[in-house]
Amino acid sequence: MAVVETPVEKWTGKVREVTLGATSSDGGTRAHSVVVGGETTLPFLHFEGEMPNPPRLAVEIVDRRPGDWSSLLLDSWGDVVDDPAKWAKAAEERGADLIALQLSLTRDGDKPTTAEDARAATRAVLEAIGLPLIVFGPGQVDADNELLVAVAEETAGERVVLGLCEEKNYRTIVAAALANDHLVSSRTPMDVNLAKQLIILISDMGLPLDRILMDPTTAGLGYGIEYGYSVMERLRIAALQGDKMTQSPIIVTPGNEAWRQKEAKVGEGVPDAWGDWAERAVLWETLTATPLVQAGADVLVMRHPQAVNRVKAYVQSLMEN
Amino acid sequence: MALTGLQIYKLLPQTNCKECGYPTCLAFAMKLAAKQAELASCPYVSEEAQAQLAAAAAPPIRLVTVEGPGHKVEVGNETVMFRHEKTFYHQPGLFVRVKDTGSAEEIETAVKAAMGFSVDYVGMNLFLDGIAVEAASGDGSKFAEAVKAVRGATDRPLVLIASEPATMEAGLKASEGTRPLLCAATADNLDSMAALAKESGAPLVVRAGELGDLADLTEKATAAGVEDLVLDVGGRGVLETLTRLTELRRLALQKSYRPLGYPIITFPGEGAAGDVDEVTLAGQHIARYGGFVVLDHFTPASAYALLVLRANIYTDPQKPIQVQPGIYEINDPAKDSPLMVTTNFSITYFSVANEIDGSGTPGWLLVADAEGMSVLTAWAAGHFDAERIAKSVKSTGIEEKIDHRKLIIPGHVAVLLGELEEELPGWEILVGPREAVDLPGFLKLWSA
Fold first, then answer.
1. May I ask the CATH architecture of the domain B64-313?
2. How many structural domains compose chain A?
3. What is chain B's mean pLDDT, rounded?
4. CA distance B314 to chain A (A)
5. pTM
6. Measured between beta carbons, which residues in chain A are less than 8 angstroms from residue B220?
7. Most B CBs within 10 Å: which of A70, A187, A257, A290, as the mutation test of the B interface?
8. What is the 3-state secondary structure (H, E, C) of chain A?
């Protein structure tokens, strides 16, 4: 038999290990914490290096019944979507590794969500589950600053991931994370240098690098997924080559991105060639997530329970070494 | 592997005669290495040097073609591990498997469903590439009949799956006039399978569970005169295929290891287990180094998702797919029809245009030159700001085509409202929905 020696890369860098959630011994109330990162090779190349922690799945829930979610998604969760604590519990029971709580801009019609509302919702979710928590603000600078600072105070010591932490608001979010022992999710628009730059700015404020996740922005299947995919591959290669400012674990949001798209969102008024809606919708989220798993995602924020099951099973089979 | 400029220089006459158009042989060699010059420009290069340069220029992964009367699939010739390093060139062929144990009607129905499927995606017509016919019966005449039934239902290329050379021969006869992929030669049947491949000119799959055995088989096959080979690593599971396919790609590209420098065939349906379904695994094989992917199930939804993933992964990263900036007329708009603006990233354009088209509302779509980026990305990068939008309003002549002065901007760039009102005096700027999917509802409320 011919002797075939497979080339093995000698990487010098390592993805940083980041711990989400604090247990009682670390000053929090989580049943257990979750460690992500730690890779010394490209995803799942166990013959070449270490991948000590599997990519983790966060299930996205909303602090009130989501107004713009597809009926397919709402039906898949049932009545719990009216109550974030029950929803979080249901997600935990269905295999979530983490819970990502999305705060809404408004509630009860058009009333803006207040800091008190955000505190109450986050508190209720924390008490309902033992999993570590990610909290996303509504995505508008003023509201994010107001609500995330309140949430950070309410959950002090829990090692919650606060997001989105972007160029326009990172000072406020990082200060809140520093003051209350939290983490931040550093979001930049699909660019290797912008990703590095924001990590540098955040770390210059004194937040330790092991409290930062890196979100290079996700696009859905068919809507530019390849841009984020390649940025992730480049970031991960740079990390393994020793570039410290790219060594943060990567967080992506395939649930949100897939379900924004018509392929997942709607069942009517689309070409017949698109096939069965329920099948297509779950596939759209699954096939948005799994290429990102291959590109280096460490945390994936997902929405549909069936897509969560599939991606989780996929990750498990890749970790069975 | 490609030679460096210095390696090429050593093969040149080194006389600096300048007849190639370059001042020195070294300068010419550097241009050759950069693929910016042709060796034929040198009148004095020796035959031996020519042969060496040609061998070095041969692609590290051989290009393999299968063909039916109506469609051709070329795979291989890849040059990079990651798409951002250059691009992935030849999309993997997606085939759907039918077995000869089904009746002719069953086969015909299955083939027509899979091959009749096509879908429009950002202006491209996407479809599956062909049919894999498996001799599950082990009976040559049944296999030949199945192949005939398939050919009666499609003119796309075939993969013939048979383990007995005699059965394969029967299938091959029934495929006359096409160039199928023969699957597969193993250590047990290599000589006879290679003979069939050589005689018919069809490419041949070789299968072995160990890379060393696989290399032995390809060397035997090439010694027998079969150059167009496809690799099957035997293993089918998620991790096993990821590992093996990565190893093969690295061997070909980084070691120029010729015995394994061929495209790879995968069977994701055979590796599916539990909650890991065939489609997920097929997605992995599309992104990670598959050349031919044989699916066991066809549904429109899964075909659509996989074809889109394939198109995305194989998009050239250097050339974002763009549409021409300008004015697009949808549903025959009139002077009082709404005017919307978006970017020239083709996915963005098609999402918006399809929604306006589907709404039935006539409309004018102004496509601004945003360097081929989507709305949010272009805005973040400064390519979709008030100035650019105002410029495209003024430069496209839309002001003569409409008698109102209302411009609808994407909800994601609502922040541009104030600046745009300054840039476009006399215009009313309206903030539209953030997502294209919500445009029809928005347009219902439109009045000029």
1. Alpha-Beta Barrel (3.20)
2. 1
3. 93
4. 9
5. 0.89
6. none
7. A290
8. CCCCCCCCCCCCCCCCCEEECCEHHHCCCECCCEEECCCCCCCCCCCCCCCCCCCEEEEEEECCCCCCCCHHHHHHHHHHHHCHHHHHHHHHHCCCCEEEEECCCEECCCEECCHHHHHHHHHHHHHHCCCCEEEECCCCHHHHHHHHHHHHHHCCCCCCEEEEECCCCHHHHHHHHHHHCCEEEEECCCCHHHHHHHHHHHHHCCCCHHHEEEECCCCCCCCCHHHHHHHHHHHHHHHHCCCHHHCCCEEECHHHHHHHCHHHHCCCCCCHHHCCHHHHHHHHHHHHHHHHHHHCEEEEEECCHHHHHHHHHHHHHHHCC
